[in-house]
Amino acid sequence: xxxxxxxxxxxxxxxxxxxxxxxxxxxxxxxxxxxxxxxxxxxxxxxxxxxxxxxxxxxxxxxxxxxxxxxxxxxxxxxxxxxxxxxxxxxxxxxxxxxxxxxxxxxxxx
Length: 110
Prior knowledge:
- The structure is a single chain.
- By secondary structure, this protein is an alpha+beta fold.
- The chain has 2 domains: about 1-55, no CATH class; about 60-105, no CATH class.
- The chain is built from 3 helices and 3 strands.
- The protein is extended, with a radius of gyration of 18 Å.
- The mean pLDDT is about 75.
- Helix content is about 30%, strand content about 15%.
- Strands 1-2-3 form a 3-stranded antiparallel sheet, with no helix packed on it.
């Protein structure tokens, strides 16, 4: 598991398959706190994810910003990413800006 907002080169945690087989399929549960992993021997492992951080309000923007931050030292790749269009655009507001605006608007009438 990676926390790509913090560091992409080193996983936050890792778990070796109990059967020592190659994992071939992975799927999150509907509540996103369990992980089902299928391996090459036909085994299915269900893992509980504990101590998970809260999901950000603007998940797409957080992911886009994290990818852009990871590519900041590779300007050629960053330019290619921007050509893909939204959510990867150079002048897009960051999720922090949107979050600030959301909370500012919520308390404007108070």
